[in-house]
Amino acid sequence: MLFGLQIVRVGTLAFVLWLGAWSVGAQTEPPLVFILAGQSNMVGQGVTAELTADQLITPPNVTYLMETGETGLFDRVRFGPEVSLVPRLAQAWPDRELIFVKHAVGGTSLLAWAPEWDAARAELTRNVEVGPLYTQLIAILDRHELRGDAEIGAVFWMQGESDARYPEVAAEYFNNLTTLIAAFRDDLQNTELLFVMGRANPSPERYTELPVVQRAQQRTGDELAAVRLIDTEGLSKREDGVHYDTAGLLELGRRFAAALAAEIHSP
Contact 166/109 with Cβ under 8 angstroms? Predict the structure, then answer.
């Protein structure tokens, strides 16, 4: 059950049916808000110049609130998974105002995103200068009156690489992640808020604690309701072996959308 509707999965046609099933929506409905957060692969290293003309079009029912304060998707030369994610959701809700709030900062661990932020702890991963990111995100929602006056559809999360560089921090990943999810659900007043996260998969040579982080992500997906962990294997990357390239980010966005569809269609 999600957004007050329950739709039955029908084999491999589920996603197609999902896109067609919600071609209705009352004009009086509040905006539907999706949050995109995390670190550099959510910020995105996709090259805007490599997109087609169609991919550069912002759907008419969509508003972007980017982490830099821009309201347009292509006010910058790089992009993240939103380019392929957003059109699919806009097609699913063509008569609904959709707002995408993106707040992501490269190189940040979960210590930088802690709801109960502590400067000394954030400094363990050299993140003290970026400040309390979760608090910043909630402040963005409040500034635009999106808590209470809008419906929060889901949180899309891409993060974990930074934690995988520090044994002590990686060991805490499960506790820190579940604390973050609980805070989102409490502050957004939705105990069933969908949390869709991508599996961190940087090059293990530099990110030695990656298996620990990945196990924590898997455990979170297994143990918490309304959490979807998406596979990121096979996504193409830049030469650094960490950041997804244009094609990889487009596929990441498609996988985010498919995960949302799967949750909506689950019995």
Answer: yes
